[in-house]
Amino acid sequence: MSDQPPETEAASALWLEAFLADPDRRGWIITHNGAPAGFLMLSGLTNCNRRAEWGWYIGDPDARGRGVGRAAQALGLDKAFDDLGLEKVWAEVLADNEAALKAQGTAGFRREGYLRGHALKDGAFRDVVLLAILADEWRTRRAAVRKSLAGSHLIAA
Ligand SMILES: CC(C)(COP(=O)(O)OP(=O)(O)OC[C@H]1O[C@@H](n2cnc3c(N)ncnc32)[C@H](O)[C@@H]1OP(=O)(O)O)[C@@H](O)C(=O)NCCC(=O)NCCS
Q1: What's the CATH code, domain 9-151?
Q2: Residue 62: what pLDDT?
Q3: pTM of the model
Q4: Within 13 A of 37's CA, how many CA atoms are on the CB side?
Q5: Probe ligand 1: pick from 70, 146, 149, max atoms within 8 Å of CB?
Q6: Which stretches of the chain drop beneath a pLDDT of 50?
Q7: Contact 57, 38 (CB under 8 A)
C-alpha cells in the first residue's frame, strides 16, 4: 500500500484498535497453508455511494507470486458485492506494481485514471493508477475466474 506503515508495535496496536472500532472499514486475514499470510481491507463502507476502496497485501514475500493474492481477491470481491452489497470497488495502485496491476486486471478491475506524483513512498513521489470494478463486471467474470483458480487448486471447486 502507498501509506507508510506504523513504525512500532505500539503504533500497530493502536492502528488495529482504531480499525476494529471503525464501521467504515472491514478487513480479513489472508491465510496460506493455514498460517496468516496477508490482509485484505475495504474502506469507505459508510459512504452513501456504495463503493469502497480496496487494499491488500501478502506480507510474507515467500508467499507472493503463488496465486494466494488472486485467490483472496476472488473471495474478497464476493464479500464486497454479495455480503456487503457494494456497487463498486476501487483501488489506488503504484504504477510500477506489476503484480497488483496484473492480478487486479485478471479479476476484471479496469483502469480509470493515472495520477502523477501522487504518493510519497520511500522518499519519492510516485505515480498511481486508479483501478475499479463494478458489481456487474465481477458477476460476469466470476465463474471464469473461479474456474481458473479451482483448476490451479487455489480455491475449492
Ligand atoms: C499484489 C499482491 C497482493 C498480489 O498477490 P500475489 O499472491 O503475489 O499474486 P498472485 O500470485 O496471485 O499473482 C498475480 C499475478 O501477478 C503476477 N506476479 C506475481 N508477482 C509478480 C511480480 N513480482 N512481478 C510481476 N508480476 C507478478 C503473477 O504471475 C500473476 O499473474 P498471472 O495471473 O498472469 O499468473 C502481492 O504481490 C503483494 O502483497 N505485493 C506487495 C504489497 C502490494 O503491492 N499490495 C498491493 C498494493 S495496491
Answers
A1: 3.40.630.30
A2: 85
A3: 0.92
A4: 18
A5: 70
A6: none
A7: yes
